[in-house]
Recover the amino acids of this structure.
């Protein structure tokens, strides 16, 4: 059974090519994402506001448990690709010359097949696993309770007596790197391709092919995603209202730029 799935995923992935791109092409994705944001500002910013509000809710619920909150916010980066589905759909509609609206987002979130649901569940498991690992690590190995960002800075980041922060970063990287490699183009591809062309495993394999063929541009893209998301978080989450839609739209253009489709 596993061999059959592997062979099918390989066939599906090989039906798509990977375009060559220069190192700084991710800057172009940001430019096109910014353009899409302001071509559909209402629906884009409203989705960004909902996501930022969810982050604010997390902060309110766990504002005195920063040992948990630090993992939750970093875990957000793992599940963000599936949360951006509505932005992908809006950019696809703009590419087609249409005018995206709430109907575009609704149709994206209510797919006719379960591939996006399966991917979302897998990412949710990954995010939950990281939150639990992060919380256990911070709560179990700090010399004092970590209730505030200052506590995290003092007892984790600046704690010279312990390699806890380095271990926390390393553990996060070990989990985040394969998740990111699996999602670079996978979810936009699933949204864009019919079920009979591409399954979940085929999409993941295609995403890994993109990463392996373009490690430097994709590393730059990952750094840009992380940097801009951190900027949004540093503005008391207000900046995420604009930054999350911007990155979501840009991620669609990353997929369109990197992957050649059968009808291209």
């Amino acid at each position: 059974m596993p061999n059959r799935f592997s062979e099918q995923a390989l066939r599906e992935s090989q039906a798509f090519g990977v375009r060559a791109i220069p190192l700084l092409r991710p800057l172009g994705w940001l430019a096109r994402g910014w353009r899409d944001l302001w071509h559909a500002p209402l629906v884009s910013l409203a989705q960004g506001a909902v996501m930022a509000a969810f982050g604010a809710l997390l902060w309110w619920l766990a504002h005195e448990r920063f040992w948990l909150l630090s993992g939750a916010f970093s875990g957000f980066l793992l599940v963000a690709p599936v949360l951006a589905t509505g932005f992908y759909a809006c950019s696809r509609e703009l590419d087609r010359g249409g005018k995206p609206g709430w109907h575009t987002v609704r149709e994206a979130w209510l797919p006719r097949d379960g591939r996006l649901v399966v991917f979302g569940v897998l990412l949710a498991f990954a995010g939950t696993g990281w939150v639990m690992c992060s919380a256990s690590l911070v709560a179990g190995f700090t010399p004092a309770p970590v209730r505030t960002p200052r506590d995290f800075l003092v007892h984790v980041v600046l704690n010279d007596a312990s390699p806890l922060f380095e271990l926390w970063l390393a553990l996060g990287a070990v989990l985040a790197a394969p998740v990111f490699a699996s999602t670079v183009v996978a979810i936009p591809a699933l949204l864009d391709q019919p079920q009979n062309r591409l399954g979940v495993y085929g999409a993941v394999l295609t995403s890994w092919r993109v990463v392996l063929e373009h490690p430097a541009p994709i590393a730059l893209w990952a750094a840009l995603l992380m940097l801009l998301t951190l900027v949004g978080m540093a503005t008391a989450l207000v900046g995420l209202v604009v930054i999350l839609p911007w990155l979501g739209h840009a991620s669609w253009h990353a997929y369109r730029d990197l992957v050649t489709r059968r009808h291209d």
Notes: The chain has 13 helices and two strands. The first strand starts at residue 17 and ends at 18. The chain has a mean pLDDT of 87. The longest helix spans residues 115-141.
